[in-house]
Design goal:
Helix content is 53%, strand content 22%. It is an alpha+beta fold.
Length: 272
């Protein structure tokens, strides 16, 4: 009998639990560390875009809406065909890294709702890629000015995205595909340029070596001329006499005859 009385209470308790659970899910919301949220007050000020919900646990009225944004860096890959300065078709693969400015997600929602990547980022980046690459030739994009093209695309995209509260982190050109005939011609030209530079380097090196040898030879010749011009007969005799006198001072017995040689230099006859 008691069980029959308790059964309605149990049923009411279960129903109340589910009602409370449903209400609590509309009363509370949480924001993760890599997220920010903006609240729309249906019966109040509307979108409160200047008060951004920070990471943590928050409470709201059941009739208000919460829009949660991921604010960590994200990446988007795009494949597209563009025309170069001469109208040649080029296929490029690019990667763009970006993130919303955390304190501006309310403004992003106001203009683009939750789909800002497809509404803002992708179209603007693709448009900028086409505009920038249209200023260069295929050869410049493929080889000589690739870094400049990449930097220009990033700079111009960054201005547009930042004006709409999105930070451009990086833009990379992953690959560039040209028609085979054009690619082969460009690579052949680059190879010829490298060979010409290598040949010029060898010529410059050989010229430098020849110039070094010429300067060394001239210096040696001048030195010989100076020495020859300074070696007079009297100087040679004097040096010979000085050398002979030094030898005569040694302890070994010897006979020194001064002025006996045909050139007038001393002779040493004995060495014991």
């Amino acid at each position: 009998m008691n069980n029959r009385r308790l059964l309605p209470l149990i049923i009411v308790g279960v129903i109340a639990f589910f009602i409370l659970l449903g209400i609590s899910s509309s009363l509370f919301f949480s924001v993760n560390a890599t997220q920010r949220a903006v609240v729309f007050y249906k019966f109040g000020i509307g979108l409160d875009k200047d008060n951004i919900a920070q990471p943590g646990f928050h409470m709201k009225a059941p009739w208000n809406d919460v829009f949660v944004y991921d604010v960590q860096e994200t990446s988007q890959d795009e494949n597209m065909d563009v025309l170069d300065k001469s109208g040649l078709s080029i296929h490029v693969d690019i990667s763009v890294r970006f993130k919303p400015i955390p304190e501006k997600v309310g403004y992003i929602y106001e203009k683009f709702n939750m789909n800002y990547i497809n509404v803002l980022v992708v179209p603007e980046v693709r448009s900028t890629v086409r505009q920038v690459m249209g200023r260069f030739t295929a050869e410049e994009i493929y080889s000589t000015k690739r870094a400049e093209v990449e930097a220009t695309i990033k700079e111009e995209s960054e201005k547009i995205l930042h004006a709409n509260n999105v930070t451009m982190v990086a833009l990379l050109i992953r690959s560039i595909q040209l028609p085979d005939q054009i690619r082969i011609a460009i690579e052949s030209k680059l190879q010829q340029q490298q060979e010409a530079l290598a040949y010029q380097f060898r010529l410059d090196k050989e010229k430098s070596e020849a110039e070094r040898k010429r300067i060394a030879a001239e210096g040696e010749a001048r030195a010989n001329n100076i020495v020859n011009s300074s070696l007079s007969d009297k100087l040679l005799k004097m040096r010979g006499i000085e050398a002979t006198l030094e030898l005569s001072k040694s302890p070994n017995s010897k006979i020194v005859i001064v002025g006996s040689s045909k050139d007038g230099l001393p002779l040493i006859l004995g060495n014991n």
